[in-house]
Amino acid sequence: MTLYKNGSFVHDSWITIHEGEEISPAGHVIAPLSWWQAERQAFAESHVPIGIRVEPGATIDDFIADLPRFALIALVIPKFQDGRAYSTARLLRERHGFKGELRAIGEVLIDQIQPMLRCGFDAFEISDPVTQAALEAGRIPGVTHFYQPGVNEAPQAGARPWLRQV
Amino acid sequence: MYRYDEFDAAFVADRLNQFSDQVQRRLSGELTEEQFRIHRLMNGVYLQLHAYMLRIAIPYGTLSPRQLRKLAHIARRYDKGFGHFTTRQNIQFNWPALKDIPAILGELASVEMHAIQTSGNCIRNVTADHFAGAAADEIEDPRPYAEILRQWSSIHPEFTYLPRKFKLALSGSPHDRAAIQVHDIGYQLVKNDKGDTGFAVFVGGGLGRTPMVGHKIRDFLAPQDLLAYTQAIVRVYNLEGRRDNKYKARIKILVHEKGFEAMREAVEAEFAADKNELLALPQSEIDRISAYFAPPDLEERPAQSQALTARRASDPAFGAFADTNVAKHRQPGYGLLTISLKPIGGIPGDATAEQMELVAELAETFGHDEIRVSHEQNLVLPHVALDDLPAIYDALAAQGLATANAGLISDIISCPGMDYCSLATARSIPVAQRISERFADGPRAKEIGAMKIKISGCINACGHHHVGHIGILGLERKGVETYQLTLGGSADEGCKLGDITGPGFSYEDVVDAIETVVDTYVGLRTSADEDFLRAYRRVGMAPFKKALYERDSGSDI
Amino acid sequence: MSQVISANRLSDGIVVFRASGGAWVEQLRDAEILPDASAVKAAMGLVEKDVLANHVIEVAAFDVAVKGDHVEPVHLRDKIRAKGPTTHPDHGKQAAL
Ligand code: HEM
Ligand code: SF4
Q: In what order do the strands lie in the sheet with B371-373?
């Protein structure tokens, strides 16, 4: 497993915690949303960086009140055809102004990188070898003209002026 | 009609490069079939029984002669000389090789066409009334809005991996010719009390194995909110639609399971939350796009055409053609001409390369360069002078395109069925052919009157059978084809699903069964003015059931 | 019941049948008839490499009835695949028969 972020492979400084595992008080862990919901009091006074892992069935309302507390949100893509996280990502970035790391985990494949970037993801956990190789070669297949400006993209010349602009 | 600007052209070229790359990666083995399938589907490439099939979008059914000529060329060069027009205003080619598809898409791009999003779990080709911009009863041309929706939904990053396919349809007239209530979202242009134009919006219609008529979620939506409201619906669906079972993944199931009221609230809440963003359509942009669809300059003509009257007097076949295939245009002296792709005994929706070229030529000579594809699998010349009808008729007749049956019993919608489709449980085209031969387009067909027969070769209902006046569904029981009949369905503004008559009929008997239904109707109607649908709604199923099943033959299962 | 293995060729989608020795042929009469389930299983094992090598897709075995040297698919769907659309006698494999 590697981490691709902002255009290159980087060292992952976060530790993924599974259900029932101990959380280091130093933070820098990506814990399940359910863990956060159970433990949030314990971390109320601490300022260590916390990340949560959100399964696609969860709604934003389940954690939106604590949003400022998260430095990272990992959205699970159980199968590459599952597009729920795309909406969640856009809502987090655009409606709720989330500025932390938005990481795609699960079945993350090369042909979905572009739409994910356009929905506001900035980090990807990669385990598929073809995807790994393509990213290493700097090849992200996709198009270069869009009718809809993406999250944090400046509108392009010629893009429809009536469409959402960031 | 809409013309690509530089941006549109670059967009399509871009997508072509992207898909060509995917095809190369597939052919070289870098992509597995499972990984590739989703891309080929999003570019309209299916695998059917005999070969690949390429489905090309004809947005809101509007074509130029140049485009139709290109389709003819593709039919000849890469296929077997014909194409199949479908109920979704697409054209399908049945024999293209995967390795040729990038070249075909390149040819299409040269005439501003593509196959983007004609398949896959995304927002599909946007369809609209085939009489748009010409019908006498129209409030406003829906195509500018269809074009706006088309652009907005093209490779939409958020909505490319929906739970299931998503279909939009628009109608600009109170009389719905676009079947909007059986679409995921249907938009009907209406006027409110203040005289403003906007949309009534329907959500959650669909056919397939669980057919449902859409619910009206909005009585009135201002045009500038079109995209924001659509985004709200699709977003709620994307987040909440079922993904555990593809047969329960359409928005109609979400609406059904969540409850329409809850769905409405969720959509309205999402719409309200997003409202301040810049998805609103400024009037200037609506006007800019609308200008592309400005009606042609039609020279004034007398309402009564002498040429037409004279020819009618001498040629009853022409008279029949003029009666059935010409609909009322909003400008006197003009008509909307339906070119039937339902020759008697022929394959509904098929057109040869030569036929396409002829229609292209007629559109140039007589039709102000416009052609439409109807969801009833016919072609339409939307602006023809009645004076020109005799000449057009003669040219059509020479290519077998002058069948005088638009709206009559032999104007049958049929899906490809088992002759092509890998999902089929029975054949549908040969059933259509036999019914067409039985009733033809002569006096008998005229006497029967308005009749919509719709045939699907499996429960996916691509042939719209649930909303046929008579619907035919081909199934398989113990290894043999059997055909279930439904009566009383309708896809127009009075949208309703048909009722199943009872046990199905064999391939051999199904045409007799249809004849029994038709004869029963003719026997019980109050007058020739009471069409099948009205008669059925008056008397109900009982007399038909009796005629179908209380006799020795017919009920074989 | 006897079976034949068929697939679609990746490059053009055309229906092909597996002949003895592992070649893919376009006409059913040239296909290998597999007399029973174990023969089908063995042949399917050998086909795997063609799928992995991306020559063919949608591999499946279907039932056939053998009378003398005539092979006929049992189900309508497979008959149509082996011949071509019933509505276009000049299209598909039937054109060459
Ligand atoms: C031959 C390849 C085809 C395949 C594999 C195919 C597949 C399907 C499937 C699986 C459905 C059901 C979707 C659902 O309920 O979720 C469906 C529905 C539909 N298809 Fe097709 N189809 C094919 C051809 C066609 C053709 C030729 C037409 C037009 C004549 C068409 C138009 C439609 C329509 C109108 C529906 C039902 C409306 C709805 O979406 O609810 N399809 N198709
Ligand atoms: S209704 Fe069934 S048989 Fe007909 S085209 Fe659709 S999927 Fe195929």
A: B62-63, B371-373, B379-385, B334-339, B326-328
| pLDDT for res B275 | 62
Residues A158, B6: C-beta atoms closer than 8 Å: yes
Q: How far is CA B20 from CA A31, A138, B38, B368, C55, in A?
A: 41, 19, 14, 35, 19
Give counts: helices (H), strands (E), chain B. Answer: 18, 21
Is residue B417 in contact with ligand 2, taking CB distance under 6 Å?
Answer: yes
| Per-residue pLDDT band at A40 (split at 50, 70, 90) | confident
Which residues of chain C neighbour B95 with C-beta distances below 8 Å?
Answer: 91
Among B376, B462, B467, B495, name the best residue to mutate to test ligand 1's pocket (greatest count of ligand atoms within 8 A of Cβ).
B462
In the structure, do chain C and chain A come into contact, i.e. share 3 or more CB pairs under 8 Å? no
Question: Looking at ligand 2, which atom is closest to the CA of residue B422?
Answer: 8
The per-residue pLDDT for A162 is 67
Look up residue C74 and give its two tokens.
């049992």
User: Are the C-beta atoms of B227 and B210 separated by less than 8 Å?
Assistant: no
- Residues B70-81 have pLDDT tens digits of 999 999 999 999
Question: Which CATH number applies to B6-109?
Answer: 3.90.480.20
Strand C24-25 vs strand C15-18: parallel, antiparallel, or unpaired?
antiparallel
The pTM for the full model equals: 0.92
Residue B61: its pLDDT value, please?
93
User: Which architecture characterizes domain A2-165 according to CATH?
Assistant: Alpha-Beta Barrel (3.20)
| Residue C54 to residue B26, Cβ atoms within 8 A | yes
Cβ contacts of A108 on chain B, cutoff 8 Å: none
Residue spans per domain, chain B: 6-109, 142-292, 306-323+336-398, 417-553
Q: Do B18 and A141 touch (CB under 8 A)?
A: yes
pLDDT in tens, B332-361: 999 999 999 999 999 999 999 999 999 999
**B160 C-beta closer than 6 A to ligand 2:** no
Q: Do B98 and C11 touch (CB under 8 A)?
A: yes
The β-bridge partners of C9 are C56
Task: Kindly report, residue by residue over B250-268, the tens digit of the pLDDT.
Answer: 999 999 999 999 999 999 9
Query: By the 8 A CB rule, do C90 and B436 touch?
Result: no
The reply to whether C97 falls in a domain is: no
Q: What is the pLDDT of residues B220-261, one digit of tens each?
A: 999 999 999 999 999 999 999 999 999 999 999 999 999 999
pLDDT at B543 over 50: yes
Q: Which residues does a 6 A CB cutoff place in the pocket of ligand 1?
A: B 46, 48, 53, 86-88, 92, 164, 167, 206-208, 250, 415-416, 420-421, 423, 460-462, 464
For residue B508, how many other CB atoms are within 10 A of its CB?
A: 11
Three-class secondary structure of residue A84 per DSSP: helix
- B417-553, which class in CATH? alpha beta
**Residue C46: half-sphere exposure toward Cβ, Cα within 13 Å:** 13
Q: Compute the distance between CA of residue B178 and CA of residue B87 in angstroms, rounded to an integer.
A: 10
How many angstroms away from the CA of B268 is the closest CA of chain A?
16
* Global ipTM: 0.95
Q: Does some domain include residue C18?
A: yes
Calculate what percentage of chain A has a pLDDT beyond 90. 60
Shortest CA gap B281–chain A (Å): 5
* CATH architecture of the domain with residue range B142-292: 2-Layer Sandwich (3.30)
Confidence at B278, pLDDT banded by 50, 70, 90? low
A158 and B7 within 8 Å at the Cβ level: the answer is yes
Give pLDDT, residue B555: 45
Mean pLDDT value of segment B319-327: 96
